[in-house]
Amino acid sequence: HNLTLRKSILGLASGVFMENIGPQYKEAGQIVAASDSPDDYEPLGNPTYNQVIVDITTSFTVLVGIFFPSVTGIMAGSNRSGDLADAQKSIPTGTLMAIFTTSVVYLSYLLFFAATYDTLLMLDKFGYSVGGKLAIASVAWPNKWVILIGSLLSTIGAGMQSMTGAPRLLQAIAKDNIVPILGPFAKSTARGEPFRALCVTACICFIAILIG
After folding, report:
1. Which residues lie across from 31 on neighbouring strands?
2. What range(s) does the Amino acid permease/ SLC12A domain occupy (predicted)?
């Protein structure tokens, strides 16, 4: 077979946007290929060597499942509504503005990716064709570590948001006596912190982590 070297990061002026903007859903087991011929993207019982193989069948529903967790940070503010001076006014306004802002930011990323990266790299989920590197880290300035460290801090931040929001939500449910057995978690410390709810939330999180 002929071996062809392709440039993976083409840039905004390349015109690749129109090639990437359309749907390109793949099925598990198919080969990532720059061709519409089944002979190129279907294994057809042949052994695969260094080809990039699709690991999961994709669809619009799967993409929504990927996008949705990106904007769940909005709930971190709603869960702490008890700290707001005027919750009835602030929650609707703040939530709608947060949804609008985050949606614009994340969808802009997708459009910039589509206008910058080669189609094959876009379909290469784990970056096997570029040595297992993150595609966005390859264009980060001034160094790839900006993205790697930023991703780590973002992950820690998201976890900490959940650790502060979930106990308050549990405490609110306990105060409203919706589930009577949760009554002991309605109490707060002298500073107004839901210490009991925080402890049980942390235990649930640790158990889930240890299972994994």
Report:
1. 53
2. 57-211
Q: Tell me the pLDDT tens digit for each residue of 40-92.
A: 888 888 887 788 899 999 999 998 888 877 776 676 666 666 667 777 788 88
Q: Within 10 Å of residue 22's Cβ, how many Cβ atoms?
A: 7
DSSP helix/strand/coil, 31: strand
Mean pLDDT of 85-113: 84
- For residues 28-38, one letter each, b for 16 or more C-beta atoms within 10 angstroms of the residue's C-beta and e for the rest, the string is eebbbbeeeee
Q: Same domain, yes or no, for 81 and 10? A: yes
Range of the domain at 184: 140-211
In 3D, which of 192, 154, 190 has the Cα closest to residue 171? 192
SS3 call for 180 = helix
Domain stops at, among 103, 130, 157: 130
| pTM exceeds cut of 0.90 | no
* Those residues with Cβ within 8 angstroms of residue 102's Cβ, 6 or more apart along the chain or in another chain: 70, 71, 73, 74
CA distance 106 to 117: 17
φ and ψ of 9, to 5 deg: -110, 105
Q: Which residues pair with 117 in a beta bridge?
A: 9
144 in Cβ contact with 138 (< 8 Å): yes
Which DSSP string corresponds to 111-166? HHHHTTB-HHHHH-TT-GGGTT--TGGGG-SS-THHHHHHHHHHHHHHHHHHHHHH
Q: How many domains does the chain have?
A: 2
